[in-house]
Amino acid sequence: MATDGIPAGCNxxxxxxxxxxxxxxxxxxIDLRHRCRQPAQALDQLAVAGGTKQAFIASTTNPQLVGxxxxxxxxxxxxxxxGCEYQVPAAPANQTLDPTKVNxxxxxFAGKGAIGQNQGCGGNGLGWTYDNPAALKIKLCPTxxxxxxxxxxxxxxxxxxxxxxxxxxx
Length: 170
Known about the structure:
By secondary structure, the chain is α+β, with helices and mostly antiparallel strands. It is built from 4 helices and 6 strands; from the N terminus they run H-H-H-E-E-E-E-E-H-E. The chain has helices spanning 14-26, 39-49, 66-82, 142-149, and strands at residues 85-87, 102-108, 111-115, 128-132, 137-140, 155-160. The strands form 2 sheets. Strands 1-5-4 form a 3-stranded antiparallel beta sheet. It has a 3-stranded antiparallel beta sheet with strand order 3-2-6, with no helix packed on it. Helix 1 (14-26) runs parallel beside helix 2 (39-49).
């Protein structure tokens, strides 16, 4: 969500709480300016509820640069949204998850493909690793994380049921 002011004006403090609840429900990033109280307080409350750490504010002191500021903020949000760490969800009731049958698929500007597992992220730094196989948290290796973060069309899917593909180390 992007806005140019606090919902319903300056005197209705209840609307910030309602807006924060809505933001938490949709986990959107919120950026707004406020004339009546400290911007950081109101803006960050909404942004945190929406899933970001703080509000992104596009300075209007140079109107020719506003578009660049907004684009930079949106790019930052997009990179954070893709991320480089993923919690593997619990298996459905009465089933178990086989950690040797988990794959990471990447879809980006150049197409779609599997990212191979590279336990410990050795060699070329490509692939993904479990940070703790018991907790089943997947982390992209540093080189892969950088590549994913720099692709404006990046999408990661965690796929279950087929033998885990291994990263080929050069």
